[in-house]
Every structure is written in C-alpha cells, then in structure tokens.
Design goal:
By secondary structure, the chain is of the alpha/beta class. It contains 28 helices and 10 strands. It has a 10-stranded mixed beta sheet with strand order 3-2-1-4-5-10-9-6-7-8, sandwiched between helices. Helix 4 crosses helix 9, helix 5 crosses helix 17 and helix 21 packs across helix 25.
Length: about 725
C-alpha cells in the first residue's frame, strides 16, 4: 500500500485570479507560514510508512544504514523543495500548483501531460488512504464491515471538504496533535536498550537499493506549501521557510525514530512485526490513532487537492467537459470538480484493494517532482533576466533533484516507471494535437533559441565543409501580393534539410507587406520547412536586396544559394544581373529559373542534367538534381554533347565515372549526343526540367530561347565554390 503521498494539495488556490478577485472572494491572505505551509507539509511527509515500514527498514539496514537511507532519500526531496521554494519566489503561481508551474514554463502540453496523471494519482491516493484508514479501524473494531467503514470515511471527508477550505485547513491542527501524541508515546518506550545494537544490517529481505526504494515514498510529499500559495499572506516568504522547515523537522523525526528503534528492538522483530511501534509504545492506542490520523489526513488532502488541479486543467481546455469542470461557486470553490473527484474516489473504493496502483501513483509524483526540478534547471541554464528569484540556489541542486527523481523512478519499479513516462508522452502528443492556446507565454521558444545560440557559437569554432552542405535559399520577392513563384518547386529543391529566407523591399506599408509575405510562404511552412522572412524598407529594390545579401554574410545561418526567376518582362533583367553579380561577390551560389509558361514542370518525374567535360561549374547543379530526384521520385538523366560520333565512347566513359564517384542513383541514364547545342536539345530525352550551368556572361535571351527550344522549364545554376558533389 502506498502510504505517504502529497497531503493537502491546492486548498482554495486563488493565485490565478487577479488581486481584486482575491479580495472580493474573501479568501486572500488568510494563512501564515505555520498554518499554510509548515503544518500541511509535515502532515504530508509523516505518513503511515513512518509507523509501519520504518522499523522494517532499520531491521534490515541497521542504525548507520538506516540513517544513510534517510539522508539519501531526503537529499532528493530537499533539492526538489529548494527548487520549489526558489521558483515560487520568482513567479506568481496560478491554480493547480505544480501544473501551473510546469505549464507556465514548458507550455500547456507539458503541464497537462503531468497534470492529468497527477490529478488521477491524487484521487486514487485518496482512495488508497481511505482503504488504509479502514484497515487501521478494523484492527480496533474488527467486527465492522470494511466497505461500510470505507464509505462512511469517504462521506466524512467529502463533507469536511464541502464545508470550506478554511475548515479543512483547521482540521490539520487536530491531526498534527494526534500524530505528535503518538510519537511522544513511542519515544517513551519502556523496552531496555540492546546490549549490542547492530550498526550495519545484513539486508536479509533485500539489498540496499530495495530497502531504499521501499522507504523512499516516506520522504515525498513536499508540495503542500506551493499549492497553498493563493491562501498565504506572504507566499514568497512562507513557501521557502515553511517547506524547508518541514523537510528539516521531518528529517530529524525520522533520524530520532531510527535511533530509538535500533537501540531498543532487535532486528528480527523489526523486520517481522509491522506494528512494532504500536506494540512498544507507552500507550499503544495513541500510535493506532496516529496511524489513523496520518491516513485520514492524506485522504483529506487528496479530496481537497485533486479537484483544484482538475479545475485548473479545465480552465485551459485541457480535459473533456472543460466548461462544466471549470465552474466555481461564489466562494471560489470548484464544486463540480469536487463532485467529479468524489465519484472517482468512491468507484475506486469498491474493489477495496488498490495496492497494484500504489507504485504507479508514486511514479507520477516522481515525474512531477522531476519536471519541477527540470523547470528550475532550465531557467537557470538559460540565464534569462526574467528568472530572478529572491531565493537563489546553485544549479547543481535542481540537476541533482531531477536526476534523483529519474533514478528513483527506475529503481523503485522499472516497468511502472516506464509506463508512467510513456503515459505522459502519449498525453503530450494528444494535447499537442489539440492546439491549446494559453493566456501566457512560456519558455519553449527561448529554450530552443538558447540551444541554437550555443550551437552556433560552437559551430563558429569549426570551419565549414562541403560534407555538411545543404540548400539554404535566399529568395527575393518583388511583390508578395502578386508574386506567382514556383513554391512547390522550391520545396522540392530544399526538402527535407534545407531552408528558405525570403525578403521583399518596400518603401512603406511594412506591416502589410510582412503579412503578405508570411501568407505567401505558408504552404512551405505547412510542409515543415524552416522558413524565415523579412521586409526591407527602401525606395529601390536592388539597394534593399544588396543590403540583405551583405548583412546575411555575417550570419551563422546564412543562405548559400540565391534563387531568382526570369519572366517574359525584360525590364527586370538588369536587376537580376546585379543580384547575380552581388551573389558572386559574397560567395553565394546562383539559380535562375525560367519556367515554361505552359508546361511548367510537367509530371515532375524526369530530370536532364547537362554536363560539360571540362567545366568546373557542375557541383551545385548535380546536388540540386539529386534533391529533385529524391523528392520527385523520378529518373535522372546525365546528358552531354560530343564533338563527333567517334568521341561518344569517351564521353560515356566520363559520365559513368562521374556517376560512380558522385554515387548517383542506380537508375541514372547516360545520354551523349554528337551534335551542336541546339540539335542536342531537340534530340535529348524529353524531361520535366533541364538543368544547365550558368555562364560567366549572362545572356537572358539565351535563357529564354533555350526554354522555348527545350519545351520545358530550365534551371541555370552557378557554383559558389562551397559545394562538392563528390564528398
């Protein structure tokens, strides 16, 4: 049975409301550090494991081994507590506690993938502890029907939670007093000290890590203060002080209990007698009442806390029936969520045995703790100015907390740990497909930006090499509102690894032009291509375009190909000429597309790549041909001309060797035509596009005539010197 889980989860958490709403509701600023943080956190940690399994742990590990286990377990939760305390001094937490922190940092999808299992786990833990309470009750009154006791306990807890949050909080003082009396009763142990108490145990029931895994849940349950933030007078002061004080006090209690157990009771009895604290207490009923109080308090915390998380999830449309579950009463109580949670708990009580779910419940709490540590570690690592908590902790602390939680997940039960992680991942995927929209920003974009910046700094230390080449296009657009460029063709020459940086130049109406440009590029973005765009304010297109080329030269993610189109209107020829010249100055490859006005790209299958034996300008053309062939799924033809029929075998040999060196597809065909250029164009296989080298002396008439002669679109390509088709 899982015997120690977060007690008193978000009790009337109103942080998500505005300050005025808090004052109007009458719920703001009610509790100080002791009532609002310290007491519920102590009650969370001091669960029934302290009574029923601490002795077993000491019997197996011995005094020093038990203290080591306690300190190791507490080190993980201490780091998590420090992370919680730190982040709560930096942000105003909304409803839902841990769900709110994770959602505001990593997005609603991450928050929901943790929050939904957390809600279910708290609900089931409430049922689990009602069962535990029932078992303790039956030890005193064995004749009572178990299901009736469980249902009456459920009804009593539901009534307490329905009266008011304030009333539920006040019951914690009674519960704390009962637990304190039970501890005093045990510390007044009448047994004589052992002559030679073992300092190190033999671990008869399992190795060190097995015993550690059994005890570890007794160290969890540190989120009560965070979840109470909406009801605290001074959350930034109370949460760190109350949480860390509770961890310290419970650590002291566990160590003292371990010392008393080890010095007065034999290891054999500690291992075999689960009720050893009852049997050796000065007044046994006090310890029995303490066990009942511990289980009751955890069940009460579940039935109070789970609805608050569910209501917070519903507010952001994360769960079904959001409108119904998100409603609150005039006193800011999530009544519908409480009813729904109560039904879940009642249904879970019917089987009567929830032990099989206890480990999975623990896993989801550990996943939550791990995420909280991760959030703090990420924000510390990003070094962003918005993360400036008043309680600063070393970066090692959240890292150790996150790593420790991960270790605990797979140490306690690898199968259930993997199941918890898989469930969270599946929930994330499901929520991502819902397209949730939050009312706040989060860190996701910043995280990847920081990673990109650090990667770019690392990349700048190494020289660029042709082996890592990919097509990154620079795309000038004269007027994005009327531009009719070949977006699908552009996609086919950069997919899957390339990118597109598009720009336009306008003397005014910058925002309108930017919107037009973004709308124009949407089809590329929908194909999962990396696309950027900008508008340059300038009276002349050529001046603005040159500014872009010159500026991007210093960028780590600079384009490497200037993509231009040539239309029928010759008035733009001089602009194209100047852009080609500017690209050559700044080591950009050039592609000039002349699209056939009627045929366009035909069936998008066959590609003719024209090669000259001694020309150095063919690497970029071949690489682009390979991208096209891959995306079209068509056939690549290598085409060359020969001076005579006698020269054709030598040219075939040249094409075959080149194909082998460049590792071209096996279905690549070779065509050598003994004719002049115009005759060769007519005799070549009919393609959907011809790819030619772009000469030193631009002749736009030649480009237009060749397109007409070939009856297909033609792409004219010029290397930058940074391409190599043979690597």
């Amino acid at each position: 049975m899982k015997l120690s889980i977060d007690v008193l989860q978000p009790l009337g958490n109103l942080v998500g409301a505005s300050k005025k709403e808090e004052v109007d509701s009458g719920e703001a600023g009610k509790f100080g550090t002791f009532a609002g943080v310290f007491a519920p956190t102590v009650l969370t940690i001091l669960g029934a494991i302290m009574y029923l399994r601490l002795g077993w742990m000491v019997g197996n590990a011995g005094l020093l081994g038990a203290i080591l286990i306690i300190l190791l377990a507490k080190s993980v939760t201490l780091c998590t507590g420090l992370s919680l305390a730190s982040i709560t001094t930096n942000i105003k937490i909304g409803a839902g506690g841990a769900y709110s922190i994770i959602s505001r940092s990593l997005g609603l999808e991450a928050g929901g993938s943790v929050g939904i299992p957390l809600f279910i786990s708290i609900s089931l833990s409430a049922a689990l502890h009602i069962v535990g309470f029932t078992e303790g009750w039956l030890r005193i009154f064995p004749e009572h029907p178990p299901l009736l006791v469980a249902m009456l306990t459920w009804a009593g807890i539901l009534v307490i939670s329905s009266i008011s949050t304030q009333f539920a909080i006040r019951t914690q003082f009674i519960i704390m007093a009962l637990i304190a009396v039970s501890l005093v009763s045990f510390f007044m142990i009448t047994a004589k000290p052992l002559a030679n108490p073992p300092l190190l145990g033999n671990f008869e029931d399992g190795n060190f890590w097995y015993v550690f895994a059994v005890f570890f849940p007794a160290a969890t349950g540190i989120m009560a203060g965070v979840n109470m933030s909406g009801d605290l007078k001074n959350p930034r002061k109370s949460i760190p002080l109350g949480t860390l004080s509770a961890i310290g006090v419970t650590l002291l209690i566990y160590v003292v209990l371990a010392v008393v157990l080890a010095l007065h009771i034999s290891p054999e009895e500690l291992r075999q007698n689960q009720m050893v604290m009852v049997d050796y207490a000065y007044w046994a009923p006090a310890v029995l009442i303490g066990i009942l109080a511990a289980t009751f308090s955890t069940a009460l915390g579940g039935i109070l806390g789970a609805p608050r998380i569910l209501q917070a999830l519903a507010e952001q449309k994360t769960v079904p029936f959001s409108d119904f579950l998100a409603r609150k009463t005039a006193k800011n109580e999530p009544r519908n969520a409480v009813i729904f949670t109560g039904i879940i708990i009642a249904l879970a009580l019917i089987p009567g045995n929830l032990d099989v779910l206890a480990t999975l419940i623990t896993m989801f709490f550990l996943v939550t703790y791990g995420f909280l540590n991760l959030v703090v570690f990420i924000q510390q690592s990003m070094k962003i100015i918005s993360f400036r908590p008043t309680l600063k902790i070393p970066r090692f602390v959240p890292f150790y907390g996150a790593a420790g939680c991960t270790f605990m997940i797979f140490l306690i039960n690898p199968a259930f740990g993997a199941a918890a992680i898989i469930i969270s991942i599946l929930l994330y995927i499901w929520l991502a497909r819902k397209g949730l929209q939050a009312d706040w920003g989060d860190l996701r974009g910043g995280i990847f930006m920081v990673l990109a910046e650090r990667a770019s700094r690392a990349a700048a230390k190494f020289p660029r090499h042709q082996i890592s080449w990919k097509p990154d296009l620079l795309l000038p657009v004269d007027n994005p509102r009327v531009w009719a460029g070949p977006l699908l063709f552009i996609r086919n020459i950069v997919n899957p690894s390339g990118s597109v940086f598009a720009f336009t130049v306008s003397p005014d109406q910058r925002e309108e032009r930017q919107k037009d440009l973004e709308n124009l590029l949407l089809p590329l973005k929908h194909r999962n291509l990396f696309v950027n765009s900008t508008v340059i304010e300038n009276d002349e297109f050529i001046h603005g375009a040159k500014s872009v080329i010159q500026t991007l030269r210093g960028s780590i993610f600079r384009p490497n190909i200037l993509f231009l189109t040539l239309g029928e209107d010759k008035k733009n020829d001089e602009v194209v000429r100047q852009l080609v010249s500017e690209a050559e100055k700044h080591d950009l490859g050039v592609m000039v597309l002349r699209q056939h006005p009627r045929i366009a790209f035909g069936m998008q299958e066959n590609i003719n790549l024209w090669l000259r034996e001694k020309s150095p300008n063919w690497h970029l053309a071949m690489l682009i041909a390979l991208y096209l062939q891959m995306n079209w799924g068509g056939k690549l033809n290598l085409v060359a001309t020969a001076a005579s029929e006698a020269d054709k075998p030598r040219m075939y040999d040249f094409l075959e060797k080149l194909s082998d060196m460049a590792r071209l597809p096996s279905k690549t065909e070779f065509h050598v035509i003994a004719a002049n250029f115009h005759e060769a164009i007519a005799a070549a296989p009919r393609p959907d596009i011809n790819i030619f080298g772009l000469g030193e002396n631009l002749s736009f008439d030649f480009i237009r005539d060749t397109t007409d002669l070939a009856h297909s679109s033609c792409l004219f390509v010029k290397d930058s010197g940074m391409e190599d088709a043979l690597v």
